[in-house]
């Protein structure tokens, strides 16, 4: 069993905690947080944008608790450090954990700045432990099977692809950190980056982006629509990200991809989430593996540790590229111009 230390007990910390405990491959042996209530197992204050009925009061018997990362890193039973802290704390803590010889899983996005991300990538190259950024959409079942269909050219080449991710304004973060763009990057870096990374996964790094958007409560770009420009791909790709919704606004992620012989459509709001509409008419519902991206990504990383293989589904460099595109979109919104992606 892989001994796991979870650092940061918020919405994603709670989610990752449950995934590790249910994996059959790992056991959470330590937690680290500055909130004493959470270290006692009172997680009743934790919220999120996806319904999570897991325990509000958690039995932490047998799990060591720490208020400082350094103390958790000194715990020899911890093989893997799972960092689910606010984004502005990612870089420093990931680097400390890698330099301590631990395997490290870090919640997305990789960091707030390219300089931070580049240093994380550099340290990871020579680290003893493995490092992966948890871009869960690459493992989300409907998204994963759609990529398989496109890679196999099941329906010919892609003509157009439109992605959308909307949410109520996230007021559930610790000390409301999500609503401070200097800590979260705003909706573009925190929410919209999911679709950015998936677009990179499907089509490669775009040459440039053209974005429109608005600045709202976080002080950053909280609602944006982007067109992605590719040097070699003759395809129209756009994506919308928005977390300006009023409190009762339901979370939804969706896409529509039109190919030569069929349209693939997904919406988390539908009972049958993934559908294919062939050119000749009718509708088909592709099979996909059960579960969610959180469990799948964590099981994948645990497998890499067990087998001593380097993660390839998402690499640290690719996580840095997703951040680079997000920052270019913000620059495009602010300048009103098309912005090239630095390579």
Short description:
The protein is α/β, with parallel strands linked by helices and 343 residues long. The chain has helices spanning 11-23, 36-39, 69-73, 90-99, 114-126, 141-151, 181-184, 186-190, 193-203, 293-307, 316-335; strands at residues 2-7, 26-32, 64-66, 80-83, 103-107, 131-134, 158-168, 208-215, 221-229, 236-245, 252-259, 262-267, 274-278, 339-340. The protein has two domains: 2-134 and 295-311, NAD(P)-binding Rossmann-like Domain (Rossmann fold, 3-Layer(aba) Sandwich), CATH 3.40.50.720; 138-291 and 323-340, Dihydrodipicolinate Reductase, domain 2 (2-Layer Sandwich).
User: What is the CATH C-level name of the largest domain?
Assistant: Alpha Beta
Q: State the domain count.
A: 2
Low-confidence stretches: none
Q: Please, what is the average pLDDT?
A: 95
Helix and strand content put the structural class at: alpha/beta
CATH fold annotation of the largest domain: Dihydrodipicolinate Reductase, domain 2
% residues in beta strands: 25-35%
**CATH architectural name of the largest domain:** 2-Layer Sandwich
Shape: globular
Helix tally equals: 11
Give the distance, in angstroms, between the N- and C-terminal Cα atoms.
Answer: 40 Å
Task: Name the CATH superfamily classification of the largest domain.
Answer: Dihydrodipicolinate Reductase, domain 2
Biggest beta sheet attributes: 8 strands, mixed
Count the E strands.
14
